[in-house]
Sequence to fold (204 residues):
Amino acid sequence: MSETHLYSDSLAKDIHTQIGLHRSFLPKEKVRRVQELFVPGDPEAIVSPGRFLTRQEFHPGHFTASAVVLAPDRNSLLLIEHNKLGMWLQPGGHLELSDTGLVAAARRELHEETGLEQVEVLQPLFDIDIHQIPAIGSEPTHLHFDLRVLFLAKSWEVRAGDGVKDSRFFSLDLLCQNPPEIAHGLGTDQSVCQLARRLFKPSS
Fold:
């Protein structure tokens, strides 16, 4: 049996359901591209996206799950210093066979990479980002169809976990400015800055 068929049906159905529920305020072009992974030309069909759940699919790529985590005061965003990519990004990664849904996948990645467990789900699908991953080792260049869950942290205590050099909260105000460096001589990417701008609420 291939790895594709070992993934939970509930995971595939939940991804499709969340996209359908939240597509009205998500980027239309990205929603269209993600829905085509289910059934090209039939965005209403509820079927498994099959091979696009597994990290072994590189043509064009595969789904990933990320955690967009606001600090307890809602004024900062949790980022990790990514080992391989050399920049500050939101916690996240590949789907696992044990994941039963999108929120569960994002929550697992969050705990693995930062140790944070006590979080509140604010929105089960807050953002979709499609970005290119460079060739690393035996893996060719491919796309990540990143599905992002919005959480509120109940604690400020985080640590560097799997595949992570550091993890910390950065002010939304700072991230909105898209500085070339935010810590350790490294910056972040445009999608993180865009998240910060959506979340930032200037004081009156």
